[in-house]
Amino acid sequence: MVIQGNFYKRTISEIFCEIWRSGRITYLERWGLMSALLKDSLTQEEMDAINRLIHAVRRGWLKVVD
Length: 66
Known about the structure:
Strand content: 15-25%
Order of helices and strands: EEHEHHE
Number of helices: 3
Distance between the termini: 24 Å
Helix content: 55-70%
Shape: globular
Structural class: alpha+beta
């Protein structure tokens, strides 16, 4: 699934890789993932990636930043 932002398009896998690489999740990334979840057209692989991110935040492996 492609998430449309202001002037760019990013896939869930691109967002996942950027978050994991940086070790933090920003407000815009959270908003993009939430938007994708609300559209209810994600594949199982995309849902698994989002669930991994949520798990990593809960375990403290990723920081939530504004």
